[in-house]
Amino acid sequence: MEAMSEHTYKQFDIELESLRTRVLQMGGLVEQQVKKAMQGLYAADTSLLEAVVREDARVNQLEIELDEACNQVIAKRQPTAIDLRMITTVIKAISDLERIGDKAHKIGRLGLALNAQHTSFTPDVELRHMADLSLEMLHTALDAFARLNVTAAAEVVHQDEAVNVEYSSVVRQLITYMMEDPRTISRSLDIMSIAKAIERVGDHAKNIAEYVIYMVKGLNVRHATLEEIDREIANS
């Protein structure tokens, strides 16, 4: 009986590790999707933008498969404590990763629309830095998940404000352009939608980081201030 119990426990560990690995693979895919969307946008590369739009179906399928795998583990193993928190984190994280994939899809679709209008994407507003910040947040959040690193996760939560500041700056610039020249309204609105998609990538990365803190420490920090998060992590 003890041997069977030990075997079952080891199998459970293998299943949990498989879930963690698959989350990171999905995370790597959506990270590449956002990168390719921004590259295609600035290069007016229709083939690259089309690939981003097309590959969104793969991201959606991964979410479905991982969600089902989590449900199977819960039904079969009835996990408790940190194991249950880990599976809950996976379920929530894959939802946010799927939404990041949606944002890459949106950027790709809007980039294609601009190309179809023969409007090259060379705006006076700068979106690449905001995209780099959001992608850095996503990468760090995934790394924090892989390493169970709450300090890195907290850093992601802190970075979100920088993305929000950049987004607000972009919106103000675009509103100024539209007021000064109504002919820029349609294009400016598309660019504003792209900027919002980038800002949302950061939001979803922040969510994942908060899930990591919950998984490791059992702390729900979704509605906490930055100071409260730092204090909770330091004292836990």
From TrEMBL:
Q: Quote the cellular component terms of the Gene Ontology held in the record.
A: cytoplasm
Query: Tell me, what is an example of a GO biological process annotation in this record?
Result: phosphate ion transport
Give the protein name, as stated in the record. Answer: Phosphate-specific transport system accessory protein PhoU
* Residue ranges constituting the PhoU domain according to the UniProt record: 24-109, 127-212
Q: Does the keyword Ribosomal protein apply?
A: no
Q: Is Heme found in the keyword set?
A: no
Q: How does it assemble?
A: Homodimer.
Q: What does this protein do?
A: Plays a role in the regulation of phosphate uptake.
Q: Which family does it belong to?
A: Belongs to the PhoU family.
Which organism is the protein's source?
Azospira oryzae (strain ATCC BAA-33 / DSM 13638 / PS) (Dechlorosoma suillum)
Keywords on record: Cytoplasm, Phosphate transport, Transport
Q: Which Pfam families match?
A: PhoU (PF01895)
Q: Where in the cell is it found?
A: Cytoplasm
